[in-house]
């Protein structure tokens, strides 16, 4: 699992980790039951604080993406397909929002944007 931390990002490091692990789970790169690196190992690989990594894992667990077993580690949670679907929908909504913002900035009317979306959906 490759996680890339950007020091130039406005997002906190733990949030960057959470976003990238969520994306890997949603895309199917990480599958149900698959172990995540230990908190210490990930912190060492990324050269960040163990506390930062622990916070990221805690957020993932709270959101239902990860299960942590004391003494064994953290694993990709399974069985919550609705959670994954909701996360995917949120990502699509975010992308569509950015597309609409770009279209407005370019002066493209809403009916043309709808037409573009219909054409893309046909593919």
UniProtKB/TrEMBL annotation:
SUPFAM superfamilies: Winged helix' DNA-binding domain. Residues 11-79 form the HTH gntR-type domain. It comes from Parvibacter caecicola. The keyword ATP-binding does not apply. SMART domains: HTH_GNTR. Keywords: DNA-binding, Transcription, Transcription regulation. This is GntR family transcriptional regulator. InterPro entries: Tscrpt_reg_HTH_GntR (IPR000524), WH-like_DNA-bd_sf (IPR036388), WH_DNA-bd_sf (IPR036390). One of its GO terms (molecular function) is DNA binding.
């Amino acid at each position: 699992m490759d996680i890339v931390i950007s020091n130039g990002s406005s997002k906190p490091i733990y949030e960057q980790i959470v976003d990238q692990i969520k994306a890997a789970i949603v895309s199917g790169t990480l599958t149900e039951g698959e172990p995540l690196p230990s908190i210490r190992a990930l912190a060492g690989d990324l050269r960040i604080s163990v506390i930062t990594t622990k916070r990221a894992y805690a957020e993932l667990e709270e959101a239902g993406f990860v299960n942590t077993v004391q003494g064994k580690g953290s694993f990709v949670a399974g069985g919550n397909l609705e959670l994954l679907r909701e996360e995917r929908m949120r990502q699509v909504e975010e992308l569509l929002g950015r597309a609409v913002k770009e279209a407005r900035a370019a002066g493209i009317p809403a009916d043309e944007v709808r037409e573009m979306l219909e054409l893309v959906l046909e593919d």
